[in-house]
Amino acid sequence: MYNIENWKHVFKLDPAKDIDDKVLDQLCESGTDAIIVGGTDDVTLDGVLFLLSKIRRHTVPVIMEISNIESVTPGFDYYFVPMVLNSQSKRWMMDIQHDAVVEYGDIINWDEMLAEGYCIMNEQSKVFQHADCKLPSKKEAIAYARMAEHLFHFPFFYLEYSGTYGDSEMVQSISQELKQTKFIYGGGIETKEQAAEMSEYADIIVVGNVIYDNPKEALKTVKATK
Ligand code: 1GP
What we know:
The structure is a single chain. The protein has 226 residues and is α/β, with parallel strands linked by helices. An eight-stranded parallel barrel has the order 1-2-3-4-5-6-7-8, surrounded by five helices. The radius of gyration is 16 Å and the shape is globular. It starts with 8 loop residues before the first strand and ends with a helix. 36% of the residues lie in helices and 19% in strands. The protein has a single domain (4-225), classed as FMN-linked oxidoreductases (TIM Barrel), CATH 3.20.20. It is built from nine helices and eight strands. Residues 12, 160, 162-163, 186-189, 206-210 line the site of SN-glycerol-1-phosphate.
C-alpha cells in the first residue's frame, strides 16, 4: 500500500498520554513517513480510537504497534507485531501472538500484519521489565539481528533503547548485518543531531518521548533524516 522501503522517520505516539491538538496536527503534517500508535502501560481501546480519529484527519500513514489484544481495532494502515527476541519468556516471542491468532486468525488481513523482531537494550525501561528481557552483549545482539534476517525473515529488526539514547557503535554494527530486514532504531532521540546520527545507520528512526517533552525539537528530527 505504502512504500515502506523508503521510510526514514516515524513518530511514536502513546495512546495513554495526552497530546495537544495543535502539536498532533504539526506532527502529522511534518513530513514524517508514518505515525505509530503504541505504548506499554494503560493502552486501552478508547485511548487508541481517540488518537486514531485525530490522526485520520491527515493523510499520513498510521500504524498500530500491538501491545495488547483488547486495544486492537480496524482502521490502521498496518499492524506491527512485536516479537521480543531477548525476552526470557516464550510468552513475549510466541504465546501472546499465538493466542491472538487463535482468536482472530480467520479475519486477520495478513498483508497489513508485519512482524518486528525486537531487541530491548535499556534495562531501566518499562518495556524491558514488562517483557522480562535479558540484556544481550554486543555479540548476542548481533546474533539476534542475524536470526531476524536469516532465520525468521522478519520485515523489521527493532533495536529498542526506549527512554535512553543508544550506543551508536552498537547501532552501526547491527546495521552492517541487515540487508533484507529493515533496521528500526528507537530510544532517547531528543535533538536533530541525534536523529541524524542514528539515521546514518538505521533505516528508520522512531521518535517518541521528546514529542511530549519538547515538541518543537521533536519536529526538527524529521528534516534531519531526509
Ligand atoms: C519507544 O523506540 C521508541 O518505543 C522511542 O523511544 O520514547 O525514548 O524516543 P523514545
